[in-house]
Amino acid sequence: MERCVAALSSNSNKQNVKVRRSQSHIPNDLSFSILSKLPIKSFKRFGCVRKSWSLLLDNPYFMTMYRYHFVTKDHSYYDDTSLLLHQILTPWGLHPGCDRYPHDDTFELYSVSGSSFENKVKLDWPNIKLKPGYYRAGVKYERGFRLLGSGSVHGTLYMVCAHNGNFILWNPSTKESKLIPPSPFDSEPNWRFCVIHRGFGYDSVRDDYKVICYGKVSRNCYGVFTEEANCGSYLWEIYSVRRNCWRKLDVDMHNKHDSCNHQQLYVDGLSHWMCFGETCQERYMLSFDWSNEIFLTTLIPPAPISNINGRLEDFWGMKQLFLLNGSIAFIVSYKETGTFHISILGELGVKESWTKIFIVGPFPCLEYPIGAGKKGDMLFRKKDGKFAWFDLNTQTIIEEFGVITQMLGCQITIHKENLLPFEGKSI
């Protein structure tokens, strides 16, 4: 009798274990549907739950789902936004930045819409007067600007005057503009502050727009500027719009930070720049928190060798940071094959959190990406100088149009409408 009871008890326990296992089993279709909608950081954390989940990045079916949800999901960053097209037209076919007189350039800024930019509204620049020493051929007002960043900061653009080095904050929605005063070092005749790197952002805690500068200080010795070992050599300065003053930023940053292209990404209260590493191939991302005034660095993985149809191609081309549907993206362009590798950052400060989710190409007609719009649409410059919209989801060129741009002379910027003045609300 006892043996019968024991046997029944054993069978009952086995059935309970089977029931529990059955209840804990999640069908692949359901798990794929859930995991494919997670941000990179959350998705990678689930890799420790099941070994099979940690291998999903190598699963073509799952990655197709993940890419689709990544580029099609709505992101608040793009609410109430429009697209701005900024072009620098250089005579004689020279690249912007070549050794020539800057007054020869033509600067144009448009608010654009439509798949072919068929709806273009030219925007008028702020009316900024030149210093007398910069007059040329009767021109007394600034004729153009360069934009810093791939998007506005709470509706405000940070612009570098093309001809005299002034810096302007401008809100296209309200037409309000503000000239940033020179820093104390720039105001002293015996000192010179050679700026290497600039940034612009918004401090949400203090409701304050801020500008940051990084550069080298040199001293005027009988008409010759020399570096002074005891003057700090490299210096960070920060300007507050609300207080209308500059101050030295005391941070423990010993390395020299050379920005690769002087562009920034701004999202969620932080600005990000790509900087040169110790070798010509190394890159890292420098981030600045505007509210806490602290820096963070994130190493960027080296560019891999491209293997397309059995053809190996070493890196030669461009490395760029973009904001892709609200996420920080690192893009490596391979010029020979027209191939583009796109990795998404999962967590600041963690090199291993970069995750490659797109390989675009080969498209030999595409030269390099200019910027990203909404829902995974990217604007490319073709090798014939024309524009092309590319859909990351379908991996197809969805629109080609005849706007001609010069190499490195074009930029698209996401502008978010904001009708509040620079000073904002009272605090």
From TrEMBL:
<dbReference type="InterPro" id="IPR017451">
    <property type="entry name" value="F-box-assoc_interact_dom"/>
</dbReference>
<feature type="domain" description="F-box associated beta-propeller type 1">
    <location>
        <begin position="159"/>
        <end position="395"/>
    </location>
</feature>
<dbReference type="InterPro" id="IPR050796">
    <property type="entry name" value="SCF_F-box_component"/>
</dbReference>
<protein>
    <submittedName>
        <fullName>F-box protein interaction domain protein</fullName>
    </submittedName>
</protein>
<dbReference type="InterPro" id="IPR006527">
    <property type="entry name" value="F-box-assoc_dom_typ1"/>
</dbReference>
<dbReference type="Pfam" id="PF07734">
    <property type="entry name" value="FBA_1"/>
</dbReference>
<dbReference type="InterPro" id="IPR036047">
    <property type="entry name" value="F-box-like_dom_sf"/>
</dbReference>
